[in-house]
């Protein structure tokens, strides 16, 4: 018999109201914003407690904390005789910062307008937390006989990895995820209601060009770090796109874009307009489709930088006075530009989901059953640890039911109708594993 789970809209909205009311304290961008995910967990524990095993219910509820105030929550429905697991992981309790002055509605309070629920974290990712919590309460109320155990893991510290060993990385290290190798893991933190079958590796980089400060009226005596940085980054990009052209499997996986390397920020030494700047820093990212190795890529990029440092003549100059290697005609002293390239933190590893696995096939079919059509897609956004989990032997499938066009943006919202469909899709997945 089909489970037929449907979202309890009143319970979902009531819980989401409480969660969004905490988001001012869930913003994650250290050191300015360090979230306290336990503020969200307290509301989850309140609604789950009556259904927990310690109160005679069927739900295992475990609050796992590695850093004070920054917990994770593991929920399990384990009916007698069930073997194997179906796990919903990736829905996180932190959120990106929001500026109330740029929002049309106050971001730290749930605003309900017809089908839309506005507030920071509604799409990413507290809406998923609330709907999965409601689903587990329904399982506890009905106690269906299932062939698979059903688990959910709500994680801390997804939006920033600046503080390690808090969320899913710590759970993996301490063995808390090991039992979920016995079935698919649905990473519920994407958007647009269709299976996301691929994400990119991502590395954030800082590139520094050092020149020589001098009066701009005597440009031949200075080394213009701005010009050097601009030409050098262009060279790096040219070499990158030669080595990381579109991969044939990107079409199969429906990637929206190929691999990219691009600058996104630039700063230079502060001085007057009539001074040649002695240093310039450019920051940016590399987004690499999962068919290439991110660590090999970074080694190659550092090799490009070495090529330039060894021979500045490979870079164009700008006019007769633009040089990156000069000799002071008065003192005879030589000056040379210098380039450095470093990666900020550990890169995220991309994933190409196993589209032959039972986990994917059930997600794809259930999506088509409920929405009328399943439209798998891949993007060069990145998710923490999914590549590592896949490499460690987990079957990772990615889905989400918010809206990508408001991801991390002002006036973020989710739709009640999409969350209703999500519950139906999850219910249908459990049906397929129960056949």
Description:
The model has no long low-confidence stretch (mean pLDDT 96). Helix 3 crosses helix 10 and helix 5 packs across helix 7 (294-310). This protein has helices at residues 9-20, 38-48, 122-142, 168-173, 225-243, 249-252, 294-310, 358-371, 386-391, 416-433; strands spanning 59-65, 71-77, 85-92, 111-113, 116-118, 149-155, 184-188, 196-199, 201-210, 214-215, 260-268, 275-276, 279-288, 325-327, 334-336, 338-348, 351-352, 377-378, 395-399, 413-415. The longest helix is centred in the first third of the chain and has 21 residues, at 122-142. The protein has 435 residues and is of the alpha+beta class. The strands form six sheets. Strands 1-2-6-3-7-19 form a six-stranded mixed β-sheet. It has a four-stranded antiparallel β-sheet with strand order 11-13-9-16, with helices on one face. Strands 4-5-20 form a three-stranded antiparallel β-sheet.
């Amino acid at each position: 018999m089909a489970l037929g789970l449907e979202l309890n809209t009143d319970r979902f909205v009531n819980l989401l109201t409480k969660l969004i009311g905490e988001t001012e304290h869930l913003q994650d961008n250290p050191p300015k914003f360090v979230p306290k995910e336990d503020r969200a967990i307290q509301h989850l524990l309140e609604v789950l407690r009556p259904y927990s095993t310690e109160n005679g219910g069927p739900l295992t509820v475990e609050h796992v904390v590695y850093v004070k105030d920054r917990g994770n929550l593991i929920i399990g429905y384990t009916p007698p005789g069930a073997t194997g697991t179906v796990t919903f992981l990736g829905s996180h309790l932190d959120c990106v910062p929001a500026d109330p002055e740029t929002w049309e509605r106050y971001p730290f309070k749930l605003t309900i307008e017809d089908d839309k629920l506005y507030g920071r974290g509604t799409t990413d990712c507290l809406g998923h937390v609330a709907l999965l919590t409601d689903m587990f309460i329904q399982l506890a109320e009905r106690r269906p006989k299932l062939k698979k155990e059903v688990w959910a893991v709500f994680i801390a510290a997804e939006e920033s990895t600046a503080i390690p060993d808090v969320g899913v990385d710590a759970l993996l290290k301490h063995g808390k995820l090991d039992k979920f190798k016995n079935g698919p893991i649905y990473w519920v933190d994407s958007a647009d209601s269709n299976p996301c079958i691929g994400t990119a590796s991502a590395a954030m980089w800082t590139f520094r060009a050092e020149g020589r400060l001098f009066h701009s009226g005597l440009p031949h005596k200075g080394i213009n770090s701005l010009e050097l940085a601009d030409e050098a980054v262009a060279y790096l990009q040219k070499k990158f796109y030669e080595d990381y052209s579109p991969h044939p499997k990107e079409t199969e996986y429906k990637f929206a874009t190929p691999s990219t390397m691009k600058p996104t920020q630039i700063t230079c030494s502060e001085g007057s307009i009539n001074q040649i700047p002695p240093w310039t820093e450019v920051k940016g990212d590399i987004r690499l489709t999962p068919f290439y190795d991110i660590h090999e890529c970074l080694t190659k990029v550092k090799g490009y930088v070495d090529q330039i440092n060894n021979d500045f003549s490979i870079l164009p100059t700008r006019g007769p006075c633009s040089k990156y290697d000069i000799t002071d005609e008065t003192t005879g002293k030589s000056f040379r530009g210098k380039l450095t390239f470093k990666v900020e933190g550990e890169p995220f590893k991309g994933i190409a989901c196993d589209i032959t696995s039972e986990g994917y096939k059930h997600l794809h079919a259930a999506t088509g059953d409920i929405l009328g059509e399943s439209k798998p897609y891949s993007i060069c956004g990145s998710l923490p640890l999914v590549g590592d989990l896949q490499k460690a032997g987990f079957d990772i499938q990615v889905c989400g039911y918010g809206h990508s066009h408001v991801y991390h943006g002002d006036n973020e919202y989710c739709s009640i109708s999409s969350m209703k469909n999500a519950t139906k899709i999850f219910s249908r997945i459990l049906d397929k594993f129960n056949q």
